[in-house]
Design brief:
Elements: H1 3-7, H2 11-18, H3 44-58, H4 60-64, H5 77-82, H6 87-115, H7 164-173, H8 180-184, H9 189-195, H10 224-238, H11 242-247, H12 254-259
């Protein structure tokens, strides 16, 4: 053993070994292939198009080349001589276009002015909702309040028992304080009925058939004859009792005989029913 290893404490080796920065391995991202980088070999047509592109844009002459300017054709003198200029017509057309443009601009300004509100108000910001406990007062009585001293604190229970009998005796002798309201409460008839177990009718031995006599018959559309009989029956039932008509005095006045007016209630020939 060397002298340095004896004098140097052992924990320094652990510090140097764990004090180095952690080397994180990052997966390199795969670059997208260009139009010339393809997984398989290029075809003949692709090589032809590549060489054409290289001749036109890939050489040094293309980088140092100056942009070509488009030469405007010189107008021929004969054509310029043959052209006739009428300044009056162009002046008239130009003035009409100016008027239309000005009218369109005025209409646009008017629309923008009318679209603005007369009184510009600030944007409405709703006030924050005030949280409150949901305790609705459904009646005029005071809301129920918890009784003083309740809920009762949990009784102290030991962490372990030496025997099962000791544990059973502990839970058998434990007592909880009874509420004062529960001692003074009186059961009502409704509370007694609700406390009883729900009773069900005994299950029948065999299924009971449905009573078809109690169910009304399905309505059907009346025929023409049935409809006529129905209307005649309604007219007959709407007529007054013939005994009542016989007891009423008859009227042979000129108006009744001429117009043959009868009362709608009792069927007499008077204008108004006799009560």
């Amino acid at each position: 053993m060397s002298l340095s290893s004896i004098t140097r404490p052992s924990w320094k080796d652990w510090v140097e070994r764990n004090a180095q920065p952690k080397q994180r391995y990052i997966i390199p991202s795969r670059s997208k292939p260009t139009r010339w980088q393809k997984p398989g070999p290029m075809t003949r047509d692709q090589w032809v198009s590549f060489y054409k592109w290289l001749e036109a844009r890939g050489g040094t002459n293309h980088q140092n080349a100056q942009p070509t300017t488009r030469l405007e054709p010189n107008p021929s003198p004969n054509r310029q001589e043959r052209r006739q200029v009428i300044p009056g017509v162009f002046f008239c057309v130009n003035s009409q276009m100016k008027d239309k443009r000005e009218k369109r601009r005025q209409l646009q300004a008017k629309v923008e002015k009318l679209s603005q509100p007369r009184i510009i108000r600030e944007k409405f910001v709703a006030p924050p909702i005030v949280p409150f406990a949901y305790r609705p007062q459904l009646s005029y009585r005071d809301p129920p309040r918890p009784e003083i001293g309740r809920p009762v604190p949990k009784p102290p229970v030991p962490c372990c028992f030496q025997h099962e009998d000791i544990e059973a005796a502990f839970w058998a002798n434990i007592r909880f304080p009874v509420s004062k309201k529960a001692l003074r409460a009186k059961t009502t008839q409704k509370m007694y009925e609700l406390a009883q177990p729900k009773s069900y009718p005994p299950k029948p031995h065999c299924p009971i058939p449905k009573n078809t006599n109690d169910q009304p018959r399905k309505r059907k559309k009346m025929s023409r004859k049935q409809w006529r009989q129905h209307l005649a029956r309604i007219d007959y039932l709407s007529m007054p009792n013939p005994r009542v008509l016989a007891e009423l005095p008859s009227c042979d006045c000129r108006n009744c005989l001429q117009f043959k007016s009868r009362c709608e209630l009792c069927g007499c020939r008077y204008n108004h029913p006799v009560l």
